[in-house]
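Obj.: predict assembly geometry.
Materials: sequence records (below).
Method: joint structure prediction, all chains together.
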Amino acid sequence: MTVLPFFLPNLGCPGRCVFCDQGLSGASALADPAQAEGFFRSAISALAPAQKEGGVELAFFGGSFTGLPLATQQELLAQAGRLLDEGLAQSLRVSTHPGLLDPAALDLLVRGRVTTVELGIQSTDDAVLARCGRGHSRAQALEACGRVRLAGLNLGVQLMPGLPGADAASDLQSARDLAALAPQEFRLYPCLVLKGTPLEGLWAAGTYQPLSVEEAVTRCAAALEVLLACGAHPLRLGLLDQPALALSVVAGPAHPALGELVWSHHLAARLADFLTGHALEIRTLRLQRALASLFLGHRRRGLELLGRLSGRTLDLELADFAAPVPDAPGWTAIPGAFAFRQEGPSILVARAVPIRTPTAREGVCP
Ligand code: SF4
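Observations (raw structure tokens):
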């Protein structure tokens, strides 16, 4: 599925979240809802045939869709509806704020043939939400998620580990709260301090300390595990590495391959679980060569972490073997993207399901 995002930076938002830089770049001046249909038509005509064959999804991102004036929402849904009617697109998603999704707002989305609603939850800790100026409570967030599920729409959620007032326990609890509502999709964006935001002032005053990259990876990996276990699909881990973002970040866990670090951590932790419980005879890790960069990364990170977590030192072999099909005999799936099997004194590790790589800037509330 190719997602075509039309950005509505900050439009419809009930306030200004302390970490948010939507609109600071001047992009809001470009967000004219009247141009959405023309934008989508040109973007669709520029797609390669193979991209169209996989299906096209239209998306309204970057603001709070259900906070827009009713006439604007209707107009945007009508524009998207024409493309759905013509068969140029197959589905429609919107992102919005959990405090702006009462039954009437949701009903409009259902009637407008929205298939997926992404909610920027960020945290389910009331103290964190208040400190961040989110303008919604934990109860509202959970209620909005439940409402989307009850309406039969796909639910996507976004969490932001490392917000002011959050700690590892509250970030993990946020993931658990959302997992209990069985979202279909999720995004994890560790909090960054961006230029010109209120958070920059807090950071400069010493009242906010962002996560290190290592902390962000650990917290995201913990949330990833919980959300994968409920069957949710990870849409994105960490913001896309873009020149504009790099210029905007003044502090925090910005890393060009944060997603890979999180996957590597996840894989090492799951393998360590297996090694700790079983198979003392295993001495070698036979890693599918295609996984080497992701798992080992810089300074053999995944192998080092696996050793630390399991208390075992394994020899490493890179090997070429086919990825197992889902449920292949002898293989144990690791939720997300991997599988392993024991073969004598070796443990074979392979990628089992491709990790989705977005082709466009995506996000609910960066
Ligand atoms: S984080 Fe989301 S809800 Fe908050 S101001 Fe930014 S776009 Fe609006």
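Conclusions so far: The pocket of iron/sulfur cluster is lined by residues 10, 13, 16-17, 20, 22, 63-64, 97, 120, 365 (CB under 6 Å).
To do: check interface contacts against the pulldown list.
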